[in-house]
Amino acid sequence: ARQITIETPFYTTRISARGAAFTSFILKKYKEAVDDDSPNKELIPQNFKNGIIRTTLLNGTVGGLENAVFSIDQSEDKLVVTDQKKEIAFKWAADDGTILVKTYTFEPDSYLIRLNVVLHNASQRTINDQLVLSLRKPVEKEKGYGFVGPSALIDDSLEQIKPKKIEDKNRYQGNIKWIGIEDRYFISSIIPGSEIEGSIQLGLKDDVVTNKLINPPFELAPGGQKESQFFVFMGPKSMELLNSLGHGLGKALNFGFFDILAKPCLWFMNQIHGVIPNYGIAIILLTIFTKLLLWPLGNKSYKSMSEMKKLQPLMAEIREKYKNDKQKIN
Predict the structure, then answer these.
(1) Closest CA relative to residue 22, chosen from 57, 56, 46
(2) In the 8-state DSSP scheme, what is residue 22?
(3) Where does the chain have alpha helices with state H?
């Protein structure tokens, strides 16, 4: 199947005509490792030949969609996005005349990619089904800090499901703002254009996690057309970046019980790092600032402890003198 390469200031990605799915996504500002000669970060493994952000119908009412090869309205095999947004449309027609069009819009100044999905029923029957968009990603073995696995923002509450827990429960329902698959430092996500009443379905096979966004049921009469809007985000779990993108993506960065303290500290440390690009110095300065902030409280505590020390000899004398009379000691 034909493949199109899209290059922006933030990433270089490749989309295959098979499924109109992403087969590569390389971040320009991040590397695989800290070494100077390390290659840029690739978010999609090379062995994922079918790609991610695939589009299907839950009940399979349109035959052939699973393995569809789309036509592309782009004559060149490379699209460079530098000064204005550009879009690519992928079109597929089923044997019964039903048409699916996936249009991706790329912005030069944003990680967010707009995805417009249009289903046109050109058959003679009514289609009753649910649109499904899916993510896939290999998961690392759990070690150290940081969540790894599928997640979603449902009913404005963050759900992070450990891969080993998928077997216990693999379906979640509610008002969905986004779904994703995370590792420690990066996240791949699908975001509905507006919050939807839907569900997610999870899977785990051969250390590969699947997270499917199942949209609400629809009924499409002959000649009818259904349009759905989404956003795709694949990038770093940067607090500043995620908050700037909206859609509640900032909640993906979760520090658990200490969240209310950790996020302000992280924000302040990153502000220091923006001026002095050295995290060692940033941590030292953050520690000094915290000490200064807590100094009045600490100083009061030290004074109280000092006063108590002065009383210790007197208290010992009283205990010795009235050791058989607790009331008098008090």
Answers:
(1) 46
(2) E
(3) 239-245, 259-275, 279-321, 326-329
The CA distance from 297 to 4, in Å, is 61
3-state SS, residue 56: strand
Chain-centre distance for alpha carbon 57? 24
| Intra-chain end-to-end CA distance of the chain, in Å | 88
Q: What is the Cα 185 distance to its own chain's centre?
A: 10
Closest C-alpha to 171, from 142, 138, 210: 210
Task: Tell me the pLDDT tens digit for each residue of 247-286.
Answer: 888 888 877 667 677 777 787 888 887 788 888 888 888 8
Q: What's the Rg (C-alpha) of the chain?
A: 28
Per the structure block, which two tokens stand in for 201? Answer: 């379905």
Q: How confident is the model at residue 309, as a pLDDT?
A: 83
Q: What is the pLDDT of residues 155-188, one digit of tens each?
A: 988 888 888 888 889 899 999 999 999 988 899 9
In Å, the largest CA–CA distance within the chain is 103
Position of tokens 């035959």? Answer: 63
Sort 92 into a burial class: Cβ within 10 Å, 0-12 / 13-18 / 19+. buried
